[in-house]
UniProtKB/TrEMBL annotation:
The keyword Metal-binding applies. GO terms for biological process: diterpenoid biosynthetic process. GO terms for molecular function: magnesium ion binding; terpene synthase activity. CDD domains: Terpene_cyclase_plant_C1 (cd00684). Residues 170-367 form the Terpene synthase N-terminal domain. This is Terpene synthase, N-terminal domain. Keywords: Lyase, Magnesium, Metal-binding. Coiled coil: none annotated. Pfam families: Terpene_synth, Terpene_synth_C. The lineage of its organism: Eukaryota, Viridiplantae, Streptophyta, Embryophyta, Tracheophyta. SUPFAM superfamilies: Terpenoid cyclases/Protein prenyltransferases, Terpenoid synthases. Residues 438-675 form the Terpene synthase metal-binding domain. Its cofactor is Mg(2+).
Amino acid sequence: MFDKVELSVSAYDTAWVAMVPTPNSPNAPLFPRCVEWVLENQLNDGSWGRPHRDPFLTKDALSSTLACVLALKRWDMAEGHVKKGLHFIESNFASINDQKQHSPIGFDIIFPGMVEYARHMDLVLPLAPRDLDSIFWLRDLELERCHRGDSNGIKAYLASLSEGMGKLNDWNSIMSYQRKNGSLFNSPSTTAAALTHTQDVNCLNYLQMLLENFVGGVPTIYPLDVRGRLSVVDNLENLGIDRHFKQEIRKVLDETYRGWLQKDEEISLDLTTCAMAFRLLRTHGYDVSSDLLTQFAEEDQYLDSLEGQYDETSAVLELFRASQLAIYPSDWALERQNSWSQEFLQRKLHNGSIRDDNLRKQVINALSFPYHSCFDRVVHKAYLEHYDPKYVKMAKTSYCCSNISNEDFHNLGLIDFNMCQLQHQQEIKQLEKWETQCRFAQLKFSRQWLGYCYLSAAATHFSPELSDARISFVKHSVLTCVADDFFDVGSSKEEQENLIELFKKWDIDDTTKFCSETVEILFLALHRTISETADIAFRWQGRCVKDHLIEIWMDVLKSMWREAKWASNKTVPTMDEYIKTGYVSIALGPVLLPVLYLVGPKLSEEVVRSCEYDELFKLMSTCGRLLNDAQSYEREAKQGKLNAVHLHMIHNDNIITEEDSVKAVKDMIDENRKKLLRMILETKGSVVPRECKDLFWDMSRVLHFFYSVDGFTSPKEMISAMNEVIHKPFDLK
């Protein structure tokens, strides 16, 4: 799959190549093997095309069948095949006017063009005059639309359909679209028509090369190597099994990057491939500019392109995915693309114009799970559920590519998901025992957070080998929730001071004094869990990190204590003071930073004390604090809690509205998130390993998803996600 892209044979394109005559002997085919393929591959119903086709692909079969009939008639052979083909066309012609049928690209121009070609060969089609009039009327409408526009995109569109344009072709103009490989649009059918009319040697070389790679039958697009290999990478990531193929993926991306730098036409001249390459290369840390995508900054620019004329929703989908990776000021075009492509896809869904069921589900998933706000495992589950191993795409004819979809990928994804899920279920039981041992149920203010916390861990760090990381994540998440409730509503000033002093002392002996059972329960749970985590981290790191873990927790407890005193004294801090304290008190440090020691890379003291490490943590945590505030400002105002939204209003003398303040906070979130993503993706000068940097982004995505549905007060979506990720396996029967 990584080394070779496998494409299905196109009866339509093979027929056009079969019709190319020998230059010095016009009554003999130049490519007799293609003629043989046509002779040998007629289906039982008289048609040519994909066997066992979908009922909604009848128009596609009509186009392929007429092309093959013309090829046989061109060389005056196989009269029986021709009669059977004509009978199929007659019997199924009504499908042309069926709006539910999936229509090949350019059908309304190419099919009437082939009918005219049949007349030229004195081939009588068994069609009523009114039926013939209807298809020519549709062609005239389409040509009239094109001539009204007369844009570069329309000119390219008509050139790409030149095999069906007949006498309307201007071959000098059409040949300006010839690519370095000799083809026109990487289309065998269009290139065959060009060779027939121009005798161009580069067209000939392309088709000869094609026949060296395919025995008789040719595909409808060639080459498709870059997109095919990138589709393998994309599939593996979407199915959640890419971790099994790291070396193979790196090889594909290295090759793609070389092609990107060399402006390989497979990338630069194909919008779908270009957008996919940009997205995968940038997310994997390659230094790629968005310049190649600036030509699609506005919807009108897309509509004026070849893909726009093809009405390729899949191309817009790839643009939308790529547009979410705007991290530099020079990525202004991506910002605009994100806006119009999102609206375009929503419009397509709303008006029901996406007839491809698989593509429609992909669009729904992309809109439902934006790159910055999703649980990986929820995305994987949805992708596995909707995955079609036999997915057929449509160009001038239908085709499939095993690199784009196949049963092996799907089966491995299903098995892997269930295996991971089984381990997750076992870990939850282990964590429930820990929670009981901690005696949290005896705390009147304590809420049940274990399920939510485990979902956040398993939905991002799901692989079996990350068990230590998951368990640490969950334990410290639960502890931060308990500590937050302790400082908010569950403790007196004396208890808060006692907890801080105990933490400063740390060691427990006969002189240790707890001023209440609440303090004792919380401190002992913290002490035991931090010590256990340090012991596990020692096995991963080969050095003791307990002092660092204690320091992380001390910073959080002090910040929570400071906020509690602000509330008690009715102190109004400055915005800078609030953020400086708030990004620590949101308590993501104890949750995430210990996990960095448990995922593989060795982290030296220099790395964890580096400016890069601190900035990654600050950006992620600031996003978390502001996301909380933007979502919960109304609730927290009633509870008397400080909040960035209301502080922003206060420090602007209350001259701005609450709505404006919320917008200002959301703008701050966007700015910090982009900075975070830029730091994660950039490699130059970075000392924090990429595996660790990714954890900061994963946490940011969890926070965005969690607060997008207000997981604290509206648990319905979170419970649904828990069931999908942790409790509902796939039926593998």
